[in-house]
Design the sequence.
């Protein structure tokens, strides 16, 4: 499962090789048993635990890696060429994310988090010739290091409070004492700060727009989906370690979720660049996932709502970034709303695909996004968080504004551009596979 | 009593070194403040009777890594007039202090809640090479192993971001 391949093959073959590895990892992840088990329990001292939730999250992450490698193949034909190392760094990032989902121990989590972040920093700053890319790298690196230091401080306080960094032992400490001791509150707070930074929740969302804008389009897609999936998985695992712990933090997370949704919407409405709009809408989706975190029940924690929403969101976002990376043209010249005027007349299929992804993100049935939101709202209601459910619906209506705006521009305006693109089959193929996935995921719960 | 005074002195020195690291303008002065921080940290480890970590801190950090950093600064030959003008940096510093002040009070409150305990001298075996090795390779094998992946990523990243690009193909 933890593949970090470093193949000595030609540059043209590298994406195929990495796609092959991702596919193999996907199959392995799918066939691995989904019962609760500690991986190599005696050697690793139960620091890795896999269950059906981590399996689903792992599938999402590996899937993201696969489609990103596929998109890169086309993207790098019309943009600055990349080197071999790009794909190996992609693997390192994926490996770090998988370890993050599995880890049940704070130090292991921190190291996996840093593996993931370092790899992502490298991917963001890969194109050294572009100023925006370098700017994004610097901003992300400094703020990310700051968040990482918060995580370490939080772990130290938790260790001081509970006497262990293992989730299982912290949980047994909480059930005999209480989660309200100052050391535990402070420690958990700092750890939450680090997680909230990584998922770009409300007070820590400022970096996300510039960073998404500066990174290469496939990398942005990868960051927006896989990174969020990994961080939310470990966030949920940490929060669900004991019921008392979650109760302490419900109010805090309630307000964070609220501000994240509405802050993200306000930012998204004001954007004229598609990548920046998607970055802001990513903030909103983090808000929905935080609702799910508020509503998880720790007695029978399975994380199915979170995993499903992550899958639904990843498919939509990856799809639109895949489409953007082949429609973007040389050097990402087409990136603002106006550049996509009348796309439907020139390239009807691509426009239809983008429309499907946008509708899925807005939450229109029968797409995956609708089912994901539906589950989140119902779980919030069953956890007696009626207010949060109502705010979630309002925010999702607000978000229609900027999703539908792009659809209107694509369909109801006259084309000014001929949308010439490099002939390469992979990113379009990837886009259409993902369109299929949107519907398949949306219909999956109904069929079963 | 003496140990407590030493602890306070080392902690204050470490924090002062950290402040110096960010506020000095010339990189050489910053590097020297970092040395102060590193050595006071080594002192703190010695107070905890962690012999091995004390030695490693002195040899690896204060010795090897710091001399490398100073070497590089020497190679670059930075002069005061080469440095960019930083207008209003004290204003930014002040802003940062204001933003982080709540965090400071929060931490202070947490620290005050820790019950006072009497420090006791640990047994002879603590912190030696054998004990650290046993703990590291038995209980903490997994973090130890994945740190190697982390270092590999950092290495690849440094080569990718700073190395020469072959612009062929």
Sequence:
């Amino acid at each position: 499962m933890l593949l970090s391949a470093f193949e000595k093959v030609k540059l043209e073959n590298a994406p195929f090789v990495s796609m092959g590895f991702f596919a193999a990892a996907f199959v392995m992840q799918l066939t691995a048993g989904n019962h609760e088990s500690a991986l190599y329990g005696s050697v690793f001292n139960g620091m890795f635990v896999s269950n059906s939730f981590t399996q689903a999250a792992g599938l999402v992450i590996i899937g993201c890696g696969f489609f990103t490698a596929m998109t890169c193949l086309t993207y790098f034909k019309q943009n600055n060429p990349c080197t071999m190392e790009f794909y190996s760094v992609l693997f390192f990032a994926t490996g770090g994310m998988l370890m993050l989902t599995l880890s049940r121990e704070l130090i292991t989590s921190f190291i996996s988090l840093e593996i993931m972040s370092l790899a992502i920093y490298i991917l963001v700053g890969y194109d050294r010739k572009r100023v925006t890319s370098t700017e994004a790298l610097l901003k992300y690196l400094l703020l990310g290091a700051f968040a990482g230091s918060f995580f370490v401080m939080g772990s130290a306080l938790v260790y001081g409070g509970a006497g262990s960094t293992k989730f299982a032992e912290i949980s047994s400490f909480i059930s005999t004492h209480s989660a309200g001791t100052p050391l535990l509150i402070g420690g958990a707070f700092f750890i939450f700060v680090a997680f909230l930074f990584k998922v770009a929740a409300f007070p820590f969302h400022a970096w996300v727009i510039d960073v998404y804008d500066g990174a290469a389009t496939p990398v942005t897609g990868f960051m927006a989906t896989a990174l969020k999936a990994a961080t939310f998985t470990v966030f949920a695992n940490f929060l669900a370690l004991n019921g008392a712990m979650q109760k302490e933090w419900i109010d805090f997370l309630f307000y964070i979720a609220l501000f994240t949704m509405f802050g993200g919407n306000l930012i998204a409405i004001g954007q004229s660049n598609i990548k920046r709009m998607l970055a802001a809408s990513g903030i909103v989706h983090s808000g929905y996932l935080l609702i799910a975190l508020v509503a998880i029940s720790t007695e029978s924690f399975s994380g199915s709502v979170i995993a499903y929403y992550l899958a639904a969101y990843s498919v939509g976002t990856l799809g639109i970034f895949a489409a953007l990376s082949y429609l973007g043209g040389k050097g990402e010249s087409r990136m603002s709303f106006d550049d996509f005027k009348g796309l439907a007349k020139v390239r009807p299929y691509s426009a239809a695909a983008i429309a499907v992804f946008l509708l899925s993100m807005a939450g229109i049935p029968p797409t995956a996004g609708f089912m994901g939101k539906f589950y989140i709202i119902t779980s919030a209601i069953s956890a007696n968080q009626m207010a949060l459910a109502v705010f979630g619906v309002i925010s999702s209506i607000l978000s229609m504004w900027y999703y539908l705006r792009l659809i209107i521009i694509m369909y109801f305006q006259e084309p000014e551009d001929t949308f010439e693109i490099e002939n390469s089959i992979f990113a379009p193929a990837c886009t259409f596979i993902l369109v299929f996935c949107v519907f398949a995921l949306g219909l999956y719960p109904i069929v079963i | 009593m003496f140990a407590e005074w030493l602890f306070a002195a080392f902690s204050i020195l470490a924090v002062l070194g950290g402040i110096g690291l960010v506020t000095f303008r010339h990189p050489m002065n910053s590097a020297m403040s970092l040395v102060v921080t590193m050595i006071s940290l080594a002192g703190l480890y010695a107070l905890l009777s962690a012999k091995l970590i004390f030695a490693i801190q002195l040899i690896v950090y204060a010795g090897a890594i710091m001399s490398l950093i100073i070497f590089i600064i020497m190679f670059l030959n930075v002069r005061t007039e080469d440095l960019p003008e930083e207008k209003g940096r004290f204003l930014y510093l002040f802003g940062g202090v204001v933003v982080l002040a709540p965090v400071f009070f929060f931490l202070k409150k947490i620290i005050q809640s820790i019950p006072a305990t009497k420090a006791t001298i640990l047994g002879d075996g603590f912190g030696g090479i054998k004990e650290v090795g046993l703990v590291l390779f038995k209980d903490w094998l997994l973090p130890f192993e994945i740190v190697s992946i982390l270092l590999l990523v950092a290495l690849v990243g440094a080569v990718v971001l700073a190395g020469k690009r072959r612009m062929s193909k």
